[in-house]
User: Fold this.
Amino acid sequence: MFDLDVRSRKPIYEQLVEKIKELIINDLLKKDEQLPSVRVLAQQLTINPNTIQKAYRELEVQGYIYSIKGKGNFVSETTSTIHSEKRVKIEDELTRLISEALYLGMTGDELCGIVREIEQR
Amino acid sequence: MFDLDVRSRKPIYEQLVEKIKELIINDLLKKDEQLPSVRVLAQQLTINPNTIQKAYRELEVQGYIYSIKGKGNFVSETTSTIHSEKRVKIEDELTRLISEALYLGMTGDELCGIVREIEQR
DNA sequence: CTAACTGTACTATTATTATTAATACAGTTG
DNA sequence: CAACTGTATTAATAATAATAGTACAGTTAG
Assistant:
């Protein structure tokens, strides 16, 4: 289900959070869909249930999922707020990166060329 | 000279490496210019000399500086190789980010708009 | 030559943090 | 009731960044 990099600087639980977020944002995990239980997913990924728990907890805090004791963790309604937050984050990152690229001598034309190319895939 | 985030996930020495790299790439540190000694810089930044040493060592390995025992560390000639390596890295990052943005529903026009805006600053 | 600066090397210690491990308790459901 | 869910807690482990302290070697100005 996921591929994690245990030797990344980014902790496993954060990697999990990001991956699951992506799935939710891109609607690959539908509203009210049940996520694997902490124990099952831990076994699948051969990591500790506590690590999964930590990721799920974080996702809950951020509003991506909700959990019901005894039943499981479920995808919550992906609000437009979440989408726009995500967009803002990407725009920030993009701005930083584009600035750097321009600073290194890349041209606006060049950068837009890259955009168009990716757009057509 | 530098502002470091001691509580970042990225280690201090890596932050240093990146900052100095930027200065070199953007020619704010000229060829053969002497860098602050490990002890002096350590005192300025109130961190341990060993941490500076580690950063300088890394910069030397990557070819950004050279060091002469007893004299100091100096900026080496910034080869076009280094520049192109940097560009490749930025392109990779950019590709990833643009893909994500498009996936979230941003349009190519929109992205190019951002590029043009930054370009005119 | 010597003092005061440079880089370099090495070991030990501290601090932080992610992860694991092991339990325990609580709610749900067939 | 058994077997699944989530949740909580504490302790141990592992990895690593950073510090501390010291030592040695080369350079240079006085």
Notes: The longest helix of chain B spans residues 80-103.
